[in-house]
Amino acid sequence: MEVNLVFEGVKFMILGMSIVFLFLILLIVSMNVLSKVVHRYFPEPQAPAAVTPDSPVADTLKKVAAIAAAIHHDKLNKQG
Three-state DSSP class for 38? Predict the structure, then answer.
């Protein structure tokens, strides 16, 4: 009984490459499913609304900036 080593090598090569290929397909499918599950149950937080010059938030920020500038100016005058 003669064993053809080339045929055996090709057979093992095809078997090994098939197993790796199937594993990679399974990995891609499982990553896609996991990505959909994560995006469904843990959505990304929404960005806050932009501050427009006419909004009440912008008005409050202007007041805070004015108060901070006044305090800074007062501290500079007291030091020197």
Answer: helix
